[in-house]
Structures are given as C-alpha cells and as structure tokens.
Amino acid sequence: MKNEGILLWEKAKKIIPGGNQLLSKRTERFLPGLWPSYYKKAKGCEVWDLDGNKYYDFAGMGVGSCILGYADEDVDKAVINAINLGSMSTLNSYEEVELSQKLLSLHPWAEMVRFSRTGGEACAIAVRIAKADSGRDRVAFCGYHGWHDWYLSSNLADTNNLDGQLLPGLEPRGVPRFLKNTALPFNYNKIEELEKIVKDYPGEIGVIIMEPRRGQGPKDGFLEKVRAIADRIGAVLIFDEVTSGFRINLGGIHLTMGVNPDMAVFGKALGNGYAISAIIGKKNVMDNAQTSFISSTFWTERIGFAAALASLNKMEKENAQKKMIEYGELISKGRERIANNYGIQVSTGGIPSFNYFSFNYKNALAIQTYYIQEMLRKGFLLDMSIATSLAYSEETINKFLAATEVVFKELKKLIENNSVESKLENEIRHSGFKRLTE
Ligand SMILES: Cc1ncc(COP(=O)(O)O)c(C=O)c1O
Question: Which residues line ligand 1 at a C-beta cut-off of 6 Å?
C-alpha cells in the first residue's frame, strides 16, 4: 500500500509543475515511489509524515535552513510576538535596523545592508548592485547561485557550463538568448580558468561571485588570488554565503578564511527556516542600490527580521556552530569507520557541519537508493549530504550510526554478490536536474 505522502505527491505532480517549488525536495531525488514526501509536524530534528510515522532528519534539516532545529521555541516566540504586534504596516519594522547593525557588527569590513527573502533573489540583487557599480555587464561565477536569468544564461553558451557547479543539465529555456556569455563559469581552485575569462573579455568583467567554500577548501591561496584579480580588473567580488554562512562560525565562513569580499550574501540559516536573506557590502558599492531600482513589498515584512535576530542571538548564546561541527565530525568519522570495517569504498568531504558522503562504485546511485530505503525503514530521513543541527545529540547520532551499521553489514554482502539492485523496492533515485524534468 502506498503511503499518504506518495498518494499526495502523485496528485501534486498533476497540478503543480514538478510537484513542488524546490528541486531539492522532490520525492524522486530521494526514493521514488516510497519517500514520505510531506510532513505534518517537525520539531527539533524529528519529522512526522502524513501517516504519523516519526523520522530523525539526516537529510539536510530543511535544506540547511534549520540549524537550531525545527520549531525552535525561542525563534518561534519572537515570530509569534511579531505576529501579535502586527507583521505588516505602512511604517517600517524597526527590527530591520537592528538586524542590519547585528550583521555589520559580525562583519566589520561591511558598512551597509539590504534584505530580501530568498537566497537566489539576494544573489540577483547583489549581482545587480555590483553591475551598477562596475558599469559592466559580464559576470564570472563559481558555484550555485539560484534560478534567475543572469545565472542560468550561462548554459546558453554551452549546456554543460553549469555541470560541476552543482546542478548539471540545467536548461536555460525562457532565458533571453542575448544574455549568452554574460555569465561565465570557473571551477573552484582553478585560478587559471578565471584568468582565462578575464583575458577573453578584457575590461568587461564587472562582477566575480563565488561560494567561498562548498566541498573542498581553497588551495594555493585561491581566494587571495581571486581577490587580487578582482582588484586588478576593478570587479566587485561577491561571496555567496547562502549555504556556508553560519555553519562554521557566527557569520560568513570567509571570516575564518582571511579574505574579505566587497559584498556577501546570506539566506538559509539566517532565519532558522523563516524567509529572510541579506546582502551586505562596502558603502561605495552598496550605494549603487539607490541608482538601480531594487524594491519589493514583502522585503519589508516583519517576521523574517524578528526570526533572524532571535536566531543569531540563540546561535551566539548556545555556541551553536561549535556543537554543529562536533556533531558533523561524529557523523562523518563514525560512518567512515563503519564503512571501513565492512570494506565498503566511500569518500567523505565538505565542511563538518555540512558533510558529503559517497560510495565509490559504478552503481553508486543504486547503492545510495538502498541505503536511503533501509534507513527510512529504520526511522531516518537520509540524504548523501548532511547538514547538522543544534537539535542533534550524541544519543541521536549514535542511533543513526547503529542503524547505518546494520545496513552496511547487509550492503557489504550485496555489493560482493552484485545484487544491490535486486533489493530495491522501486526505481533508483534520480540524480541531476535532467532526470527530474523528464
Ligand atoms: C550558495 C547558494 N546560493 C544561492 C542559493 C539559492 O537559494 P534559494 O534556494 O533560497 O533561492 C543556494 C541554495 O541552495 C545556495 O546554496
């Protein structure tokens, strides 16, 4: 019998293109035909599906947004207070100024702040401001920066341009063809690729936007070299901290890396699941927001500011990042040890509080599907990257590792017998964007 979530997902796909609003939450990305898909309740690191089953979330904790845990009482109290006092009005929310001050105190190099609601939107705003500042139209980028035209246009030149940048196979249909070659990708730690872009378009690159760190860390002074290129050519350097921000330290991860950008963008964890994103930057660059029309009704709404202030205060009080790193290390080291014990070939990577795990086999996707399927049965939502949360505990992690041990013991035999696929109850999980859109 199909679970309630799957039944609803099948209905949803008929009336909502793609089934939902976010690729990363699509059922087929996890466990086609079996994933619970919808939740009734989420609290701490636990999630209840439509059938009332309870799971521990080791699948990203709300796409990396809930580092304090789901339905955090302190954040919710601030939000409820904001609602009770009126979340919208003709006048501005004073919390907007308080949150600006807080973000600037955490990032002393920055002098001004703008806000929006989502990560992709904040990146688009930052790129617009940076283009206005530099007066140039071309952007060099490294990493994933959302769904907007400026970014997707990269694939107009070569449909593989965004391969290696997180989401392979993204098709730029509907993106104006004349944006071709306005967004030019370079890979992390490949400074020669950025140099080539600069050489190919002399005097035309006005913006360099990149994630300061995602999987691997910088090598051979990569960030310093990017900074030097930006200064040399007069481009605005933007660090996209939508995912990396607040995961290792209170603020942008760049604060731990010794290189400051001209602007930085935050989202995800800033409001612990409430919609809020921020763009911070140097005054001379940020002032350009005034010369380019950037304005929206719901960027003024109170809930996001209240949630972000409460989240930052709690992260600081609880030393959240230190605990998240500890939890991440317990998970990745523990799981690697179990894999090694059973002779299963794996790789791990990323930052501890947002760590990646992969199986080094040709049929890795089938193996992942088996792991997700078996962990679901044992009460865990699982993905190959785990964003840790303050809501985890050593006890929960030990339960996770114990369940993994049982699965890996069986998996070892299945790999040896070449029979992983025979144990799958449904299709193999889909990987890239291409499969998902078919
Ligand atoms: C680095 C980075 N930038 C931008 C985005 C887009 O953020 P959103 O999904 O909130 O639009 C993401 C989302 O995963 C991201 O990781």
Answer: 118-120, 123, 143-146, 211, 240, 242-243, 267
